Automatic annotation (TrEMBL):
This is protein disulfide-isomerase. It comes from the Eukaryota. Residues 1-22 form the signal peptide. PANTHER family: PROTEIN DISULFIDE-ISOMERASE C17H9.14C (PTHR45672:SF11), PROTEIN DISULFIDE-ISOMERASE C17H9.14C-RELATED (PTHR45672).
Length: 361
Protein backbone atom coordinates (compact mmCIF):
# COMPACT_ATOMS: atom_id res chain seq x y z
CA UNK A 1 0.00 0.00 0.00
CA UNK A 2 1.35 3.45 -0.93
CA UNK A 3 2.53 5.62 1.93
CA UNK A 4 0.62 8.85 2.75
CA UNK A 5 3.37 11.11 1.34
CA UNK A 6 3.31 9.26 -2.02
CA UNK A 7 -0.47 9.60 -2.12
CA UNK A 8 -0.08 13.29 -1.32
CA UNK A 9 2.32 13.78 -4.19
CA UNK A 10 -0.09 12.10 -6.59
CA UNK A 11 -2.93 14.34 -5.46
CA UNK A 12 -0.71 17.41 -5.84
CA UNK A 13 0.38 16.33 -9.32
CA UNK A 14 -3.22 15.80 -10.38
CA UNK A 15 -4.22 19.17 -8.97
CA UNK A 16 -1.35 20.89 -10.78
CA UNK A 17 -2.35 19.27 -14.07
CA UNK A 18 -5.92 20.44 -13.61
CA UNK A 19 -4.73 24.04 -13.35
CA UNK A 20 -3.45 24.08 -16.90
CA UNK A 21 -5.72 22.68 -19.56
CA UNK A 22 -4.72 23.01 -23.17
CA UNK A 23 -6.73 23.41 -26.35
CA UNK A 24 -4.08 22.68 -28.94
CA UNK A 25 -1.14 24.70 -27.61
CA UNK A 26 -3.27 27.47 -26.10
CA UNK A 27 -4.08 27.34 -22.38
CA UNK A 28 -7.79 27.04 -21.55
CA UNK A 29 -8.35 29.64 -18.84
CA UNK A 30 -11.08 29.37 -16.22
CA UNK A 31 -11.80 31.13 -12.91
CA UNK A 32 -9.87 28.32 -11.20
CA UNK A 33 -6.59 28.79 -13.09
CA UNK A 34 -6.72 32.36 -14.44
CA UNK A 35 -4.73 33.96 -11.60
CA UNK A 36 -2.13 31.18 -11.77
CA UNK A 37 -1.43 31.91 -15.42
CA UNK A 38 -2.14 35.61 -15.86
CA UNK A 39 -0.67 38.52 -13.91
CA UNK A 40 2.32 36.69 -12.50
CA UNK A 41 5.81 36.11 -13.85
CA UNK A 42 4.55 35.49 -17.39
CA UNK A 43 3.13 37.87 -19.97
CA UNK A 44 -0.15 36.67 -21.46
CA UNK A 45 -2.20 37.22 -24.59
CA UNK A 46 -5.77 36.10 -23.98
CA UNK A 47 -8.66 35.60 -26.37
CA UNK A 48 -12.11 36.01 -24.84
CA UNK A 49 -14.46 34.18 -27.18
CA UNK A 50 -17.85 32.53 -27.63
CA UNK A 51 -18.16 29.08 -29.28
CA UNK A 52 -20.98 30.26 -31.59
CA UNK A 53 -19.14 33.39 -32.79
CA UNK A 54 -18.26 33.33 -36.52
CA UNK A 55 -15.29 35.70 -36.14
CA UNK A 56 -13.98 33.52 -33.31
CA UNK A 57 -14.17 30.47 -35.57
CA UNK A 58 -12.19 32.32 -38.23
CA UNK A 59 -9.57 33.27 -35.66
CA UNK A 60 -9.27 29.72 -34.26
CA UNK A 61 -6.68 28.32 -36.71
CA UNK A 62 -4.53 31.45 -36.35
CA UNK A 63 -4.74 31.17 -32.56
CA UNK A 64 -3.60 27.55 -32.79
CA UNK A 65 -0.52 28.62 -34.76
CA UNK A 66 0.11 31.39 -32.22
CA UNK A 67 -0.05 28.88 -29.36
CA UNK A 68 2.38 26.57 -31.12
CA UNK A 69 4.83 29.42 -31.73
CA UNK A 70 5.05 30.19 -27.98
CA UNK A 71 4.74 26.62 -26.74
CA UNK A 72 8.40 26.40 -25.75
CA UNK A 73 8.73 29.99 -24.51
CA UNK A 74 7.97 29.85 -20.75
CA UNK A 75 7.80 33.63 -20.30
CA UNK A 76 4.58 33.90 -22.35
CA UNK A 77 1.12 32.34 -21.98
CA UNK A 78 -1.26 32.17 -24.93
CA UNK A 79 -4.68 31.63 -23.42
CA UNK A 80 -8.38 31.59 -24.21
CA UNK A 81 -11.55 32.04 -22.17
CA UNK A 82 -14.96 30.66 -23.14
CA UNK A 83 -17.22 33.59 -22.21
CA UNK A 84 -20.40 31.55 -22.58
CA UNK A 85 -19.15 29.30 -19.81
CA UNK A 86 -17.35 31.93 -17.71
CA UNK A 87 -19.45 35.08 -17.98
CA UNK A 88 -18.27 36.55 -14.68
CA UNK A 89 -14.59 36.24 -15.62
CA UNK A 90 -15.18 37.93 -18.97
CA UNK A 91 -17.32 40.61 -17.34
CA UNK A 92 -14.50 41.36 -14.90
CA UNK A 93 -12.42 42.55 -17.86
CA UNK A 94 -15.21 44.44 -19.61
CA UNK A 95 -15.64 41.99 -22.47
CA UNK A 96 -18.76 42.85 -24.47
CA UNK A 97 -18.00 41.51 -27.96
CA UNK A 98 -16.26 38.52 -29.45
CA UNK A 99 -13.50 37.83 -29.97
CA UNK A 100 -11.86 40.30 -27.58
CA UNK A 101 -8.10 39.99 -27.29
CA UNK A 102 -6.20 41.46 -24.35
CA UNK A 103 -2.51 41.59 -23.51
CA UNK A 104 -1.51 41.23 -19.85
CA UNK A 105 2.06 42.34 -19.00
CA UNK A 106 4.05 40.47 -16.38
CA UNK A 107 2.91 41.05 -12.81
CA UNK A 108 -0.27 42.83 -13.88
CA UNK A 109 -3.93 42.11 -14.43
CA UNK A 110 -4.46 45.53 -15.97
CA UNK A 111 -4.67 44.51 -19.63
CA UNK A 112 -4.17 46.37 -22.87
CA UNK A 113 -6.73 45.82 -25.63
CA UNK A 114 -5.30 44.32 -28.81
CA UNK A 115 -6.68 45.88 -32.00
CA UNK A 116 -4.14 44.77 -34.61
CA UNK A 117 -4.35 42.21 -37.41
CA UNK A 118 -5.63 38.74 -36.68
CA UNK A 119 -3.25 36.57 -38.64
CA UNK A 120 -0.78 34.41 -36.74
CA UNK A 121 2.05 36.59 -38.09
CA UNK A 122 0.37 39.76 -36.78
CA UNK A 123 -0.26 38.27 -33.35
CA UNK A 124 3.24 36.81 -33.01
CA UNK A 125 4.84 40.11 -34.02
CA UNK A 126 2.77 41.95 -31.40
CA UNK A 127 3.68 39.55 -28.56
CA UNK A 128 7.35 39.55 -29.54
CA UNK A 129 7.42 43.36 -29.38
CA UNK A 130 5.63 43.48 -26.04
CA UNK A 131 7.34 40.57 -24.30
CA UNK A 132 10.78 40.88 -25.87
CA UNK A 133 10.59 37.36 -27.31
CA UNK A 134 11.61 35.99 -30.69
CA UNK A 135 8.95 33.45 -31.55
CA UNK A 136 8.46 32.53 -35.20
CA UNK A 137 5.73 30.89 -37.22
CA UNK A 138 6.79 27.42 -38.27
CA UNK A 139 5.43 26.87 -41.74
CA UNK A 140 6.06 23.84 -43.89
CA UNK A 141 6.29 24.58 -47.61
CA UNK A 142 2.93 23.94 -49.24
CA UNK A 143 2.33 22.35 -52.63
CA UNK A 144 -1.26 23.63 -52.75
CA UNK A 145 -1.76 26.62 -55.05
CA UNK A 146 -3.48 29.42 -53.13
CA UNK A 147 -6.00 31.23 -55.30
CA UNK A 148 -7.38 34.71 -54.96
CA UNK A 149 -9.66 36.93 -57.01
CA UNK A 150 -6.90 38.05 -59.36
CA UNK A 151 -5.31 34.62 -59.95
CA UNK A 152 -8.44 32.47 -60.19
CA UNK A 153 -9.15 33.03 -63.88
CA UNK A 154 -5.48 32.94 -64.88
CA UNK A 155 -4.85 29.56 -63.23
CA UNK A 156 -8.19 27.75 -63.12
CA UNK A 157 -9.37 28.73 -66.60
CA UNK A 158 -5.98 28.11 -68.26
CA UNK A 159 -6.79 25.74 -71.15
CA UNK A 160 -3.53 23.86 -70.62
CA UNK A 161 -4.27 23.00 -66.97
CA UNK A 162 -6.47 20.47 -65.21
CA UNK A 163 -7.36 22.07 -61.88
CA UNK A 164 -8.95 20.70 -58.73
CA UNK A 165 -10.26 23.57 -56.58
CA UNK A 166 -11.28 23.34 -52.95
CA UNK A 167 -13.61 26.14 -51.91
CA UNK A 168 -13.13 26.32 -48.13
CA UNK A 169 -13.68 28.45 -45.04
CA UNK A 170 -10.93 28.91 -42.42
CA UNK A 171 -13.32 28.07 -39.56
CA UNK A 172 -14.75 24.93 -41.22
CA UNK A 173 -14.00 21.74 -39.29
CA UNK A 174 -14.35 19.44 -42.30
CA UNK A 175 -11.95 21.69 -44.23
CA UNK A 176 -9.39 21.39 -41.45
CA UNK A 177 -9.80 17.62 -41.47
CA UNK A 178 -9.28 17.51 -45.22
CA UNK A 179 -6.22 19.81 -45.20
CA UNK A 180 -3.49 17.17 -44.54
CA UNK A 181 -4.83 14.84 -47.26
CA UNK A 182 -5.21 17.75 -49.67
CA UNK A 183 -1.60 18.76 -49.04
CA UNK A 184 -0.48 15.17 -49.71
CA UNK A 185 -2.47 15.20 -52.93
CA UNK A 186 -0.82 18.42 -54.07
CA UNK A 187 2.59 16.89 -53.38
CA UNK A 188 1.68 13.79 -55.43
CA UNK A 189 0.97 15.97 -58.47
CA UNK A 190 3.73 18.54 -57.92
CA UNK A 191 5.66 17.12 -60.89
CA UNK A 192 2.70 17.19 -63.30
CA UNK A 193 2.86 20.33 -65.46
CA UNK A 194 -0.79 20.07 -66.50
CA UNK A 195 -2.34 19.36 -63.07
CA UNK A 196 -2.91 21.97 -60.35
CA UNK A 197 -4.25 21.30 -56.86
CA UNK A 198 -5.60 24.59 -55.55
CA UNK A 199 -7.84 26.15 -52.95
CA UNK A 200 -9.77 29.37 -52.42
CA UNK A 201 -10.92 30.93 -49.16
CA UNK A 202 -14.56 31.24 -50.23
CA UNK A 203 -15.52 32.91 -46.94
CA UNK A 204 -13.27 35.87 -47.71
CA UNK A 205 -15.38 38.92 -48.62
CA UNK A 206 -13.34 39.43 -51.81
CA UNK A 207 -14.09 35.88 -52.99
CA UNK A 208 -17.81 35.54 -52.25
CA UNK A 209 -18.74 36.53 -55.80
CA UNK A 210 -16.64 33.62 -57.10
CA UNK A 211 -18.21 31.24 -54.60
CA UNK A 212 -21.68 32.40 -55.66
CA UNK A 213 -20.82 32.11 -59.37
CA UNK A 214 -19.97 28.43 -58.92
CA UNK A 215 -22.85 27.64 -56.61
CA UNK A 216 -20.82 27.07 -53.47
CA UNK A 217 -23.13 26.83 -50.47
CA UNK A 218 -21.19 24.59 -48.08
CA UNK A 219 -17.60 23.85 -47.14
CA UNK A 220 -15.52 22.27 -48.39
CA UNK A 221 -16.82 22.20 -51.95
CA UNK A 222 -14.49 20.56 -54.48
CA UNK A 223 -14.70 21.20 -58.21
CA UNK A 224 -12.78 19.82 -61.18
CA UNK A 225 -11.93 22.18 -64.04
CA UNK A 226 -10.74 20.08 -66.99
CA UNK A 227 -8.20 21.41 -69.47
CA UNK A 228 -10.55 20.38 -72.28
CA UNK A 229 -13.72 21.86 -70.79
CA UNK A 230 -13.77 24.61 -68.19
CA UNK A 231 -17.34 23.87 -67.15
CA UNK A 232 -16.72 22.73 -63.55
CA UNK A 233 -17.71 19.28 -62.33
CA UNK A 234 -18.37 18.76 -58.62
CA UNK A 235 -16.05 16.21 -57.08
CA UNK A 236 -18.29 13.67 -55.33
CA UNK A 237 -15.86 10.77 -54.77
CA UNK A 238 -14.12 9.80 -51.54
CA UNK A 239 -11.92 12.23 -49.65
CA UNK A 240 -9.10 9.80 -48.98
CA UNK A 241 -5.86 10.06 -50.96
CA UNK A 242 -6.48 6.91 -53.01
CA UNK A 243 -9.86 8.18 -54.24
CA UNK A 244 -8.44 11.57 -55.19
CA UNK A 245 -5.51 10.03 -57.09
CA UNK A 246 -7.74 7.58 -58.93
CA UNK A 247 -10.12 10.37 -59.96
CA UNK A 248 -7.42 12.73 -61.21
CA UNK A 249 -5.54 10.00 -63.10
CA UNK A 250 -8.75 9.12 -64.92
CA UNK A 251 -9.73 12.72 -65.66
CA UNK A 252 -6.30 14.11 -66.57
CA UNK A 253 -4.79 11.02 -68.17
CA UNK A 254 -1.98 10.93 -65.62
CA UNK A 255 -0.39 7.84 -64.07
CA UNK A 256 0.47 8.80 -60.51
CA UNK A 257 0.73 6.47 -57.53
CA UNK A 258 -0.32 7.49 -54.02
CA UNK A 259 3.34 7.88 -53.07
CA UNK A 260 3.83 10.44 -55.84
CA UNK A 261 5.69 8.12 -58.18
CA UNK A 262 4.72 7.11 -61.69
CA UNK A 263 3.36 3.83 -62.97
CA UNK A 264 5.13 2.04 -65.84
CA UNK A 265 2.43 3.32 -68.23
CA UNK A 266 3.34 6.98 -67.70
CA UNK A 267 4.45 8.52 -70.98
CA UNK A 268 3.58 5.48 -73.08
CA UNK A 269 1.63 6.34 -76.26
CA UNK A 270 -0.18 3.27 -77.56
CA UNK A 271 -0.42 4.60 -81.13
CA UNK A 272 3.40 4.66 -81.33
CA UNK A 273 3.88 1.11 -80.05
CA UNK A 274 3.85 -0.50 -83.49
CA UNK A 275 6.13 2.23 -84.83
CA UNK A 276 8.72 1.36 -82.17
CA UNK A 277 8.48 -2.35 -83.04
CA UNK A 278 8.93 -1.60 -86.75
CA UNK A 279 11.87 0.70 -85.99
CA UNK A 280 13.68 -1.94 -83.92
CA UNK A 281 13.02 -4.70 -86.47
CA UNK A 282 14.18 -2.61 -89.44
CA UNK A 283 17.66 -2.55 -90.87
CA UNK A 284 19.81 0.56 -90.70
CA UNK A 285 18.86 1.41 -94.30
CA UNK A 286 15.12 1.74 -93.56
CA UNK A 287 15.10 3.11 -90.01
CA UNK A 288 15.30 6.69 -91.28
CA UNK A 289 12.06 6.22 -93.25
CA UNK A 290 10.30 4.86 -90.16
CA UNK A 291 11.61 7.80 -88.13
CA UNK A 292 10.19 10.23 -90.71
CA UNK A 293 6.79 8.51 -90.46
CA UNK A 294 6.98 8.79 -86.67
CA UNK A 295 7.55 12.56 -86.99
CA UNK A 296 4.27 12.84 -88.89
CA UNK A 297 2.47 10.58 -86.41
CA UNK A 298 3.50 12.75 -83.48
CA UNK A 299 1.86 15.74 -85.17
CA UNK A 300 -1.52 14.00 -84.80
CA UNK A 301 -1.23 13.40 -81.04
CA UNK A 302 -3.22 15.29 -78.42
CA UNK A 303 -1.60 18.25 -76.69
CA UNK A 304 -1.01 16.10 -73.61
CA UNK A 305 0.68 13.35 -75.64
CA UNK A 306 2.90 15.57 -77.81
CA UNK A 307 5.69 15.93 -75.19
CA UNK A 308 5.81 12.13 -74.86
CA UNK A 309 5.85 11.76 -78.64
CA UNK A 310 8.80 14.15 -78.80
CA UNK A 311 10.66 11.88 -76.37
CA UNK A 312 10.03 8.90 -78.67
CA UNK A 313 11.52 10.90 -81.57
CA UNK A 314 14.58 11.97 -79.58
CA UNK A 315 15.33 8.36 -78.64
CA UNK A 316 14.92 7.20 -82.26
CA UNK A 317 17.22 9.99 -83.48
CA UNK A 318 19.84 9.11 -80.88
CA UNK A 319 19.76 5.46 -81.95
CA UNK A 320 20.17 6.52 -85.58
CA UNK A 321 23.15 8.71 -84.67
CA UNK A 322 24.81 6.62 -81.95
CA UNK A 323 23.68 3.07 -82.51
CA UNK A 324 21.61 0.68 -80.39
CA UNK A 325 24.07 0.83 -77.49
CA UNK A 326 22.66 4.31 -76.77
CA UNK A 327 19.64 2.68 -75.08
CA UNK A 328 21.78 0.80 -72.55
CA UNK A 329 23.93 3.82 -71.73
CA UNK A 330 21.00 6.20 -71.39
CA UNK A 331 19.06 3.75 -69.22
CA UNK A 332 22.01 3.51 -66.84
CA UNK A 333 22.38 7.28 -66.71
CA UNK A 334 18.70 7.76 -65.85
CA UNK A 335 18.86 5.07 -63.15
CA UNK A 336 21.72 6.96 -61.48
CA UNK A 337 19.97 10.33 -61.74
CA UNK A 338 16.75 8.99 -60.25
CA UNK A 339 18.66 7.92 -57.13
CA UNK A 340 19.71 11.52 -56.48
CA UNK A 341 17.66 14.39 -55.00
CA UNK A 342 15.59 15.93 -57.77
CA UNK A 343 12.81 18.46 -58.09
CA UNK A 344 9.37 16.88 -58.67
CA UNK A 345 9.45 18.16 -62.25
CA UNK A 346 12.85 16.63 -63.03
CA UNK A 347 11.94 13.34 -61.38
CA UNK A 348 8.82 13.20 -63.55
CA UNK A 349 10.78 14.02 -66.71
CA UNK A 350 13.43 11.35 -66.10
CA UNK A 351 10.90 8.69 -65.01
CA UNK A 352 8.82 9.17 -68.15
CA UNK A 353 11.92 9.07 -70.32
CA UNK A 354 12.96 5.84 -68.59
CA UNK A 355 9.51 4.32 -69.22
CA UNK A 356 9.63 5.16 -72.92
CA UNK A 357 13.25 4.07 -73.25
CA UNK A 358 12.26 0.67 -71.85
CA UNK A 359 10.16 0.09 -75.00
CA UNK A 360 13.33 0.23 -77.11
CA UNK A 361 15.08 -2.63 -75.30
Amino acid sequence: MASPWVFGLLVLAFASCSLVQADGDAVVLTPDNFDDNVGGSQAALVEFYAPWCGHCKKLAPEWEVLGSAFKKIPSVVIGKVDCDEHKDLCGKFGVSGFPTIKYFPKNSQQPEDYSGGRTADDLITFVNQKAGTKAKVKKEPSYVTILDKSSFEKIVLDPSKNVLVEFYAPWCGHCKSLAPTYEQLAKVYAGEPNVVIANLDADNADHKDLASKYGVSGFPTLMWFSADDKEPVRYESGRDLASFVSYINEKAGTHRTESGGLTDEAGVVESLTETVKDFLAAGSDTRQDIYDKAVEAVKTLTSTQVPYGQTYLKIMKSILDKGSEYVTKESGRLERLLKTTLSPQKETEFSIRKNILRLFN
